[in-house]
Design goal:
The complex is a heterodimer of chains A (502) and B (139).
Chain A lengths: L1 H11 L2 H19 L5 H8 L8 H18 L1 H7 L8 H12 L3 H34 L4 H17 L5 H15 L2 E2 L6 E2 L13 H20 L18 H23 L5 H15 L11 H25 L5 H12 L6 H6 L1 H24 L1 H7 L4 H20 L2 H19 L5 H23 L4 H6 L2 H27 L8
Antiparallel strand pairs in A: 1-2
Helix pairs in contact in A: 1-16, 2-3, 2-4, 2-16, 3-4, 3-10, 3-14, 4-7, 4-13, 4-14, 4-16, 5-6, 5-7, 6-7, 6-13, 7-11, 7-13, 7-16, 8-9, 8-20, 8-22, 9-20, 10-18, 10-19, 11-12, 11-13, 12-13, 14-20, 18-19
Chain B lengths: L1 H29 L6 H23 L11 H16 L6 H15 L4 H22 L6
Helix pairs in contact in B: 1-2, 3-4, 4-5
The chains are: A mainly alpha (502), B mainly alpha (139).
C-alpha cells in the first residue's frame, strides 16, 4: 500500500502534470466565477482539450477544473448575489449581505478558506473510505451491478425536486440513447441504420457538451437576462480573525460532515449539501437571527458543505463507478475516453493511480484556495465580461472540441442535436441529470442484467431475488421513486422543493 | 396563464415520449431475443410514464410555466450555426469561423467594431490552439 502511495505521488510530482493541474484550476475558477457557467459545463466543454495529452495530464486538468469551479462559484454569489454554480446557492444567503456591509473581502476569504478545508477533509475521506468500499464491491456479481445501476438512476430521478415522472422519463431517454450501437452481448447492430459511426454507440462527450454547454447558452440567449450590474464592492480585509475562526468552527465541522455524506449519496450534489448544512448550522447556532443577514457561521457551513461533496461524490464514483453528482457524471465519461474505468477493479489493479487522483485533488484544492485568497479581485473582473462574448466562445469551443474528438462532423451534429433537445427538455422543466446517468449507466445496467439472466437460465425471479444485496438495492430504488410521488401532492401544496440541476 | 402554458408543454412532452416509447416497443419486438429486451422494456416504461405525465399535467396546473422567450433570436442563432456546420469543409477554417462569429455577435447585439475584434481573437486563438498547438486538422 505504501509503495502504491509513493508511486502515486511520484506520478503527480512532474512539472507537466502539475502545469496541467494549474491550468485546469485556473480554467475551473473562471468557469465557476462566471454566473451561468457551471463545473459540469467546464468539465464537459474542456474535455476534448485533454485528449492529446497523457491520461495523467488530462486527468490533472479535468480534476483541476472540477476542484477549481466549485469554490469559485461563491465569488459571484458573494459579490453580486448570483451563484456561479448551483453548489453556491446558500453561499449567497450570507455572503452577499456581508459584501453589502462592506466586508466583501472577509466573505471571499472565508469562502476560499472554508471551501479549501471542505475539499481537503473530504478528499482525505476519499483516500480512507474508498478502498474498503471498493473491496466490498469486488464481491459484486452481474445481479448486484444491475441493481446498483438501477439504484443510481432511480435516486437521481427521485431527487429531481418534485419532478419525479419527468426525472424518470429523462433517465429513460438516456437509456434509450445508450442502446444505440452494437448489442453488448451479441454485437448485433441496434438502431445504427447502417451507419458505421454509430456502431460504437453515440459518442458520450459531444452529448455532454451539447447538454451542458449548448443548452445553457441557448437558455441564456432565450431568456436574455441582462447581467446584474455589480456595484463596486469594497473588498476590505480578507483574512478572518482568530475569534471569528473559533466562532465558525462548529458550523464548518457540521458542513464538512453533511457535505461529505451528501456527496457519497449518488445523485445528490453540492446544492443539496450546502442548503442542508446551512439549515443545520442555523439550528445549532446561538446567533440564529444572524443567519441570512451576513452570518459568518452560515457562510462557513455552506462553503465547507458544498465543497465537501467533491470528495464524497468522487468516493462513490471511483469505488463503485456510480457518479455522486453531475460534474462527476461528466468526469466518468471523460475518464472512460482516457481508458480509465472507474470501479472496484481500479482499486485492485491500479492502486497507485487512485492515489495519484487523491494527490491531484489535494493539490487542486490548495491551489484553488490560494487563488481564492490572492486572486479574488482579478477574478471578480471576469464576471463583468459581456454575455455574448461568453456565449460565442462556448459555442465555438463546443463545435471545435466535438469535431476534434475523431475528426467527424457527425459528432458535431450530435452535439448540436443534444443542445437543442436539452434546451427543449429544460424549458419543459425536465431535469437533465437523470438523462446523463441513464446514458452512463445504461450499458452497465443492460450488460449485467443480460449476464445475470444467462447465469440464471432466464429465471427472472431468481435473478432479482437470489442476491440479498441486489434485492435490497432494487427495493431501495423503488422506494426512492415511489416515496417522492406519494409526497408530491402535499409538497406542491406547500412549496416547491429544492431542485437538483446539473 | 402559466398553468395553461405548463399543460401544453407537459402534454407535448408526454406526446413525444409516448411516440418514442411506442417506437421502442415495436422496434424492440422486431429485434432478436435478448437484443430486444431492453428496448421493449424501456418502451413499456416510457408509455406508462408518458401517460402519467399527461395526467399529472392535466391535474397540476400550478407547475412551472413554459416560456420560449426570445424565440426569434434563438432561431437566428441556431439557423446560423446550422449553416456554419453545413458549410464545414468549404473555404479556410479561420476565415469561415471569423465570418460566422462576427455575424453571430452582431445578431446577439454586439457592436460591429467589438464584434469583429472578438471574432478575430477567438477564431485565430482556436485555430492556433487546435491546428498548430494540438496538431488537429479542422478542415
Amino acid at each position: 500500500m505504501m509503495i502504491d502511495l509513493f508511486e502515486g505521488l511520484l506520478a503527480v510530482l512532474q512539472w507537466k502534470v502539475l502545469g496541467f493541474l494549474a491550468v485546469g484550476v485556473l480554467l475551473g475558477v473562471i468557469f465557476g466565477a462566471l454566473p451561468g457557467l457551471t463545473a459540469t459545463m467546464g468539465v464537459a466543454v474542456l474535455t476534448p482539450l485533454t485528449f492529446w495529452v497523457s491520461p495523467e495530464q488530462g486527468l490533472a486538468m479535468l480534476l483541476g477544473i472540477y476542484c477549481g469551479a466549485i469554490p469559485a462559484g461563491g465569488i459571484p454569489a458573494i459579490l453580486i448575489n448570483v451563484p456561479g454554480t448551483p453548489a453556491s446557492i446558500a453561499t449567497a444567503w450570507d455572503g452577499y449581505p456581508l459584501a453589502k456591509r462592506g466586508e466583501a473581502g472577509l466573505a471571499l476569504g472565508i469562502n476560499a478558506l472554508m471551501s479549501g478545508l471542505g475539499q481537503l477533509v473530504s478528499i482525505f475521506f476519499l483516500a480512507v473510505a474508498a478502498f474498503p468500499i471498493a473491496r466490498f464491491a469486488l464481491k459484486f456479481g452481474p445481479a448486484e451491478y444491475f441493481a446498483l445501476a438501477v439504484f443510481g438512476i432511480s435516486l437521481m430521478a427521485g431527487v429531481s425536486g418534485g419532478r419525479v415522472v419527468k426525472g424518470m422519463l429523462a433517465g429513460a431517454l438516456g437509456l434509450a440513447v445508450a442502446m444505440i450501437g452494437l448489442d453488448p452481448i451479441t454485437a448485433y447492430p441496434r438502431y445504427t441504420y447502417g451507419r458505421a459511426e454509430f456502431m460504437d454507440g453515440i459518442a458520450f462527450v459531444p452529448v455532454m457538451i451539447g447538454l451542458f454547454g449548448l443548452t445553457e447558452v441557448f437558455a441564456q440567449i432565450s431568456d436574455h437576462v441582462k447581467k446584474t450590474e455589480a456595484e463596486p464592492a469594497k473588498i476590505g480585509r480578507i483574512w478572518p480573525r482568530w475569534q471569528e475562526l473559533r466562532r465558525m468552527w462548529p458550523a464548518a465541522t457540521a458542513g464538512v460532515g453533511i457535505g461529505t455524506a451528501v456527496g457519497v449519496i449518488p445523485a445528490a450534489g453540492g446544492d443539496i449539501g450546502s442548503v442542508i448544512a446551512w439549515d443545520q448550522a442555523r439550528r445549532l447556532s446561538r446567533n440564529k437571527d444572524q443567519f441570512g443577514k451576513g452570518s459568518i457561521e452560515g457562510l462557513a457551513a455552506s462553503c465547507t458543505s458544498s465543497n465537501s461533496t467533491v470528495g464524497g461524490s468522487m468516493t462513490t464514483m471511483l469505488a463503485l463507478g456510480i457518479p455522486g453528482d453531475a460534474p462527476a457524471a461528466v468526469l466518468i465519461g471523460a475518464l472512460l475516453i482516457h481508458g480509465i474505468q472507474p470501479g472496484p477493479l481500479l482499486f485492485r489493479d491500479h492502486r497507485d493511480f487512485v492515489f495519484s487522483i487523491v494527490f491531484l485533488m489535494m493539490f487542486a484544492a490548495v491551489l484553488a484556495m490560494v487563488i481564492g485568497l490572492v486572486g479574488a479581485k482579478p477574478v471578480a473582473r471576469v464576471i463583468r465580461l459581456p454575455d455574448p462574448w461568453i456565449w460565442v466562445g462556448i459555442i465555438l469551443i463546443g463545435v471545435v472540441g466535438s469535431f476534434a474528438l475523431s475528426n467527424s462532423l457527425t459528432d458535431v451534429w450530435v452535439m448540436f442535436a443534444a443542445g437543442l433537445i436539452g434546451f427543449a427538455l429544460r424549458k419543459a422543466d425536465f431535469p437533465l441529470g437523470p438523462l446523463v446517468l441513464g446514458l452512463i449507466l445504461g450499458p452497465m445496467m443492460e450488460s449485467n442484467l443480460r449476464r445475470a439472466l444467462i447465469l440464471n437460465r432466464d429465471d427472472w425471479f431468481g435473478t432479482l431475488t437470489n442476491s440479498p444485496l441486489a434485492l435490497f438495492l432494487l427495493i431501495a430504488a423503488m422506494a426512492s421513486l415511489v416515496l417522492p410521488l406519494l409526497k408530491q401532492p402535499r409538497k406542491q401544496a406547500k412549496q416547491p422543493s429544492p431542485r437538483v440541476e446539473a | 396563464m402559466a398553468g395553461s402554458k405548463s399543460n401544453i408543454a407537459d402534454q407535448v412532452a408526454a406526446g413525444g415520449f409516448f411516440g418514442l416509447g411506442f417506437f421502442l416497443f415495436v422496434s424492440g419486438a422486431a429485434l432478436p431475443d435478448g437484443v430486444g429486451l431492453l428496448p421493449k422494456a424501456l418502451g413499456l416504461v416510457m408509455l406508462g410514464l408518458s401517460i402519467g405525465l399527461y395526467l399529472q399535467g392535466r391535474k397540476n396546473r400550478a407547475s412551472a410555466g413554459f416560456s420560449i422567450g426570445h424565440l426569434r433570436l434563438l432561431a437566428s442563432v441556431t439557423a446560423l450555426t446550422a449553416v456554419y456546420l453545413l458549410l464545414w469543409g468549404f473555404g479556410w477554417f479561420p476565415l469561415r469561423t471569423f465570418v460566422y462569429l462576427a455575424v453571430l455577435l452582431w445578431i446577439l447585439g454586439e457592436s460591429w467594431k467589438r464584434g469583429l475584434a472578438v471574432s478575430a481573437a477567438l477564431s485565430s486563438g482556436v485555430t492556433a490552439a487546435f491546428q498548430y498547438g494540438l496538431q488537429i486538422s479542422l478542415e
